[in-house]
Amino acid sequence: MNGTDDSERGLGGDDAVAAEYVLGTLDADERQAAARRLDADAAFARLVDRWEVILSPMADRYGSVEAPASAKQAIDRRLFASTASQPVQKAGLWSSLAFWRGLAVAAVAAAAIAIAVPLMTPPAPPAHMMVASLAPQQSDVHYLVVYDGTKGEIGLSHVSGERASGRDFELWVIEGNQQPRSLGVIPVGARMTMPVSPEMKDKVAAGAVFAISLEPRGGSTTGAPTGPVVAAGNLRDI
Amino acid sequence: MTPQDISKLIVRTSMKDRGAFDVLYRQTSAKLFGVCLRVLNDRAEAEEALQEVYVKIWTKADRFAVSDLSPISWLVAIARNHSIDRIRQRRRPAADLDEAIDIADPSPGPEALAVAGGERARIYSCLEELEADRAAAVRGAYITGESYAELAERYKVPLNTMRTWLRRSLMKLRECLER
Fold first, then answer.
1. N or C: where does chain A have the smaller number of CB atoms within 10 Å of the terminal CB?
2. Is A124 within the bounds of a domain?
3. Domain boundary residue, one of A30, A61, A92
C-alpha cells in the first residue's frame, strides 16, 4: 500500500485516539491524557466505548487462570478495612440512589450477611428496575435515573448542572418515534422521586429515551418541549 | 451465570452490595486474572493488578450503565486497560514472554460469559481480510498490549509507519464489521 492511500483512508482526530487507546498502542503519557478525557468528556467516552465494543470479541483469546486466594482478601482489606464499623460507604452517587429506594438498609443487611456467611448467595434483586444516565447535551446538566417498575416511581439523582433562574427542568420520555411525553417538572434537589402514572408506565420500557428540557417555570404549557434539550439518555434493563 | 446475571451483580455492586461483589468476584476473577497475566506477564504483578481492578470495579460500577459493552466485556476492558496502563509505566522484561504465551493460549473454556459466537466469528473473518502481518499486529496489540514502539521494532518498520498501518487496519476492521 502507499502513503497517499493511508492518509486518505486512515482514522483521524478523536476517533483515532479512542481507537488507539482501546487497541492499547498509545504510550504512557498519551494513555494518561486519554484516561483523563474519558472522565471529563462524554463524547470522547462514547467513542472509546464504541471501539471497545468493536474490538471486544478478540478478548476470547484470554484464557482463564484461577487467581490466588490471597487476592480477594487483599481486595477486601483495601476496600473495607478502614470502614469495618460502617460497611456501607456514604459517599458516592449510587449509595444516595440506594437511599431513596430504602436500599441502604437492605445493603447493610446484605453486607452483614455477607460477612457472616461469605458463600451465601445474595438475596434476589428487586424486580424490574431500569437505569439511565442522562448525559449532558451541549450543557453541563447530568442526571442519573432509576426507574422502579414495581413501585411505579422514578428516582433522580442530580450529578451536575444548574437550571437558569426562573426556569425549570422538565423530564420527558420518548418511545420510538412518538412525541415526547412529559413526566413532569423535576423538583429541585440532589435526589428526588417522581411518581409515574399507570398510563405513563406503559411508555417507560427498555430502550425508551429520557430527555430533560429547559422550560419556563412550572414546565411547558404546550405539552411538548419548548426549550433546548440539556440532557438525554437511554433506559437500560438491569 | 448468564450475562443478565453478571449485569445484575455489577449493578448491585454499584449500590455497594458486598454480597453481590463477592459473587461477582467468584464468577469473573479467573477470566480477569487471565487478562492481567497475559498482558503483564508476571504473576506477582498480575495479582496486584487484579486487586486494583476489583477496587476500580467496586468504585466505578455505576459507569456500567452508560456502556454498550456486554457485562463480561466491560469487566475485561477494565482489567485490560489497567494492565496496559501498568506495562506502560515500566519496561517489559522480555524473558518471560514464552511463559505468558503458554499460560494463556486460546482455551475459551466455560466462558459462555464471553461474547456471542456470531460476533466472535465475524471479527476473525474481518481480520482475515487484512494483510496477514497487519492482522497479527492488531491481535498482538490488543491481546498483549504492545505499544507502537514495540510493534515497530518487531516488524522492523518506522514507528509512524506502524501507526499508519494500524489506524488503517482499524478503520477497515470497523467498515467490515459494520457492513
1. N
2. no
3. A61
User: Looking only at Cα atoms, what is the longest distance across chain B?
Assistant: 51
Question: What predicted TM-score, i.e. pTM, was given to this entire model?
Answer: 0.61
Nearest-CB residue to B141 (from A25, A35, A89): A25
* Burial bucket for residue B29 (CB in 10 Å: 0-12, 13-18, 19+): buried
CATH number of domain containing B73: 1.10.1740.10
Question: Are residues A232 and A133 both part of a single domain?
Answer: yes
Residue B110 lies in a domain: no
pLDDT at A97 over 80: no
Answer yes or no: do A63 and B34 touch at CB < 8 A.
yes
Q: Is A64 helix (H, G, I), strand (E, B) or coil?
A: coil
Chain A, chain B: beta-carbon pairs less than 8 Å apart: 240
How large is the angle between the packed helices B18-40 and A103-116, nearest 10 degrees? 70
Quote ipTM for the complex.
Answer: 0.86
In a domain, A155, yes or no: yes
Instruction: Tell me the per-residue pLDDT of A151-190, one tens digit each, with 9 for 90 and over.
Output: 788 888 887 888 888 889 999 888 777 788 888 899 888 7
Task: Say which DSSP state A190 is in.
Answer: S
Q: Which of residues 105-144 of B touch A (CB under 8 A)?
A: 105-109, 111, 114-115, 119-120, 122-124, 138-139, 141-143
Domain extent at residue A172: 129-237
Nearest CA to CA, how far is B98 from chain A (Å)?
Answer: 15
B22 and B60 in a common domain:
yes
Tell me if B62 and A144 make a contact (CB, 8 A cut-off).
Answer: yes
Q: Angle, to 10 degrees, between the axis of helix B132-144 and the axis of helix B159-177?
A: 90
